[in-house]
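As a warm-up, study this chain.
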Amino acid sequence: MNAGFQTADYLVFGVYALIIIAIGLYVSRFSKEKSSSDYFLAGRSLSWWAIGASLIAANISAEQFIGMSGSGFRIGIGIAAYEWIAAATLILVAKYLLPIMIEKRIYTMPQLLNERYGHGVSIAFSIFFLLLYLFVNLTSVAWLGALAMEQVSGSTPMMWGVVGLLLFSGLYSIYGGLKAVVWTDIIQVIFLIGGGLVAVYFALKAADPSTTIMADGSAWTGLQNVFHTIRDAGGDYHLSMIIPEGTVVSDPATGQQFDISKDLPGLALLLGSIWVTNIGFWGFNQYIIQKGLAARSLHEAKKGLLFAGYLKLLIPLIVVIPGITAYVLFTNPHLIHGLQDSITTADSAYPWLLKNFTPTGIKGLAFAALVAAIVSSLASMINSTATIFTMDIYKRLISPEASEKRLVNVGRMVAFCALFIAMAAAKPLLGGLDQAFQYIQEYSGYVYPGVTVVFGMGLLWKKATNRAALWTSILTIPVGIALKFAYPDMGFVLRMSYAFIVLVVIAVTISLLDRSESVQDDTSKIAGRRSMVRASWVLLILAAICIMAGILFSKRWTSYHFDAIYMLGVLLGFIGVMLRTNSLSRTRSSRAYSIGGKAFDFTPGLTVGALGIVIILTAIYAVFW
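Now compare it with the structure written out below.
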């Protein structure tokens, strides 16, 4: 067992930092931006492997390494649902959402809203996203990263860590734009996955009960011991995906009693708002979908998203299993042979593992993986914050005639300002939290139900109107707050489900009643019209079955939150209504997108790739149900 950084660790980490800075500055120096498209979308030149790697590098950050690992320590494998459902969501985004955006040459998500609904909705969501990036995403990632640096190295003060991470990420991303972000992301994801797997390997070696010398331990035996220890303990849900209501356990770090189902509400993690969150995040989150929009072709974009889906299946092995391993080691003192260092909060579980169970030198590599995850996410968020402000607020409202060079310079200035705002806001917002991952999910949850409804119907439904989108946008946060006050004991995952139901009803009702922007539509020319009608019937019947099942069985299976099936029914019904009216209604919104029939095609190779993800997910849920 080791404590803190040694010289070899600093050398390994220093080599990593130099590689990233050198590549970032090299790309920035030799890829001169001729236009805002070059700076914000890398000239739309990305290949599938760059897209997939950059998506994961942008997504995986301290939120996962620290926050999700902390949740794995505290509540178990169920938290991995966010990652595994994301893999399935990427298939849906690749097939149905991204093709429309690429076909319409979208730069930013608010630009999409401006084209589809008009100025008011676009500005509202521009402000939504800017506030979300500045005060939730950038701050939380930088704070959690600094926490890890302090705990692992033992010599990095928290605020210095926050400042250092933000400046490191801005060093190349502000100058080089998206191309510099993506090329460094490719290297970052190698460190992220490779270093993460190395850290898991040594943590599991420490869990081998057959030896008192960690170096002699077997990672495979350690993994078996972790599983057997949990499953042999009565009432331990660390290896269960579906948690019944009222499952009260003790926090292994603090001893405080809590109900696991508030964070992991049974079937709601399979049937409920987790789909809404993932569709909103992977389909309409600027710093994520921007990588797909920069693809050299639609086919490359689809392949890139499926590649990211396979990488997402791997992420829980890197971030959740270490948390569960830390739980077994910490609660079984005979395995750690008198180690005095303690875990005081759930979010300190991953740093505790790195500090105490990785050898000198390897600790530096594992720490580089952690910092790679943090810096790549911060760089993507900074670039997207600059993109939204520059293209959707500055160019549209302040200086419509601005030159391409001026837009790039404004983007750089905005990115620089975002760094300092995040530095100032990090400690006041996150200084007193125990589980930052839950903080991020809960406060993002106030926005994502509205994001999914407004963007989804804007892309896919010809009847969606500006008035419906505007009222849905206005009511998104108030509906979430009202549900929070009305049902204070309800977990945020369930609250998001009911918020989504309310917002769908509002959006559909207003769209169907509002005739102010209706124009005639010749449905006879719609490609695949009969197939759309048949599909709409299937979806509407499935929606009715889900709602009837909820009525009949939700009380009987209330402990597993079977009422989440209402949200699934509403989601299926929403899609069914869109398909049916798209194919049969003779009127449409004057701003509705016309969609080419071939945009949604999947080649046989893409279809096989998508089926592979589904099969793996089915096997995972069968094992951990």
